[in-house]
Structure formats: C-alpha cells, structure tokens
TrEMBL record:
The keyword Metal-binding belongs to this UniProt entry's keyword annotation: no
A Pfam family annotated for this UniProt entry: DUF624
Record protein name field: Membrane protein YesL
InterPro entries, per the entry: DUF624
Signal peptide: none
Highest taxon in the source lineage: Bacteria
Keywords: Membrane, Transmembrane, Transmembrane helix
TM annotation in the entry: 25-48, 85-103, 115-137, 158-178, 184-203
C-alpha cells in the first residue's frame, strides 16, 4: 500500500527540487568533463533525457541513483552524436554573433531592417534549440530529420510554444533577480519547464 505522505504536495515539491538540484550538479560536472565546449551538448542531452523521466513518465520511479546512472549512460552514448550537432549550432551562433558585431558599421538606413532580421534570426535559433533537445531524446530519426522536426515543432502547437517561451523567459528573469537559483537548479529548472510545457507538442506521450 502506498504511504499517504508520499503523495503530499509538499513532499512531491521537495522531491522534485532535490532531483533538479542533483541533475543541475551533474550537468555542470559533465559539461566540465568535456572541457565545456565538448561537454555542453552531451550533458544537456543527458539532462533532457532524465528530465523526460521526471515529467513524462512516473517520476516516483526515478530514484536519485537511477537518474545519476541514466545521466552517465546517456552522456557516454550520445557524446559523439550530440557534439556533431553542437558544432552545427556553435557555427550558427558564431555567424549570428559576427553579424551583430558588423551591424554598427552599416549605413544608418540598413541598420534598422538588418537589426530586426538579426533579432528574428537569433530568437528563432533559440526556439529551435529549445525544441531540438526534446526532439532528439524523444524521436529516433535520421540525422537531418532532427533539424526538420526542430524547425517544425514550434509551429505545431503555437500555444504550447508560447507557453514554453513565456515560462523560460520568466524563469530566466527570476535567475537575474535571485542569482543563487542558478547554482541549485538554473539549467535543470529551464529543462524541466521546457519538457513540462512542450509535452502537448509531441504526437505521442511517452509510456
């Protein structure tokens, strides 16, 4: 028989916070293990994979040990594949960054439309990136199909996409208002929000 206090909202909130703190710590450690550049994407893929267990599956079965073990296994399994995608996103980000540096040197007549175009491109890249991680751990696709899905998913459920963007924006604002959150559950909190709010965007719920 299930112990009644295990379903109490306060216990569930404390349990969730504990798991978010641990996953945030693992994300930082494994990102550093890959010298940041080569650890960022594998660690983030592993983070989203374990976050799927918490948000889309029965989170009570996701013990701290199983989350740690799963995180490590996912990090190893997808290290090469995730870094291949990481290089693509790094390249896109570098191009946008260089273009931002060039903008002030343009004629005044071109600055406004080019700035608007770059704002849109930067925002769209961030949205695609937010949906790419859930798509990567949710679907088994060919290499280029992941990019296609990541581009199309934000338009599949506009309300869900708006909720994800709004939720992440509010959470990031809270991080600036109360920076210590970053140390405990900054990245894992963002991943939890994305996975929780984007579930309706996907055709099938994970069993």
């Amino acid at each position: 028989m299930k112990i009644r206090w295990l379903s109490h909202p306060l216990y569930r909130a404390a349990d969730l916070f504990t798991k978010l703190v641990m996953l945030n710590f693992l994300w930082a450690i494994f990102t550093l293990a890959g010298l940041i550049v080569f650890g960022l994407f594998p660690a983030t893929v592993a983070l989203f994979s374990q976050m799927r267990r918490i948000t889309w599956k029965d989170w009570e079965s996701a013990s701290l040990y199983s989350l740690f073990h799963g995180f490590y296994q996912e990090w190893k399994q997808y290290f090469i594949k995730a870094n291949t995608w990481g290089l693509l996103f790094y390249l896109a980000g570098t191009v946008l960054f260089v273009n931002w540096l060039i903008l002030p040197q343009l004629d005044s007549a071109l600055q406004l439309p080019m700035t608007a175009a770059h704002l849109f491109s930067t925002g769209f890249l961030l949205v695609v990136l937010m949906f790419w991680f859930p798509a990567f751990i949710h679907y088994e696709l060919k290499w280029m199909d992941y990019l296609k899905v990541a581009f199309l998913l934000p338009f599949k459920n506009i309300l869900s996409t708006f909720m994800v963007i709004a939720g992440v924006s509010v959470f990031i604002a809270l991080l600036f208002w109360f920076p210590p959150i970053i140390s405990f559950a900054g990245i894992s909190g963002i991943a939890w929000l994305i996975m929780s709010l984007s579930v309706k965007t996907f055709t099938t719920r994970v069993a």
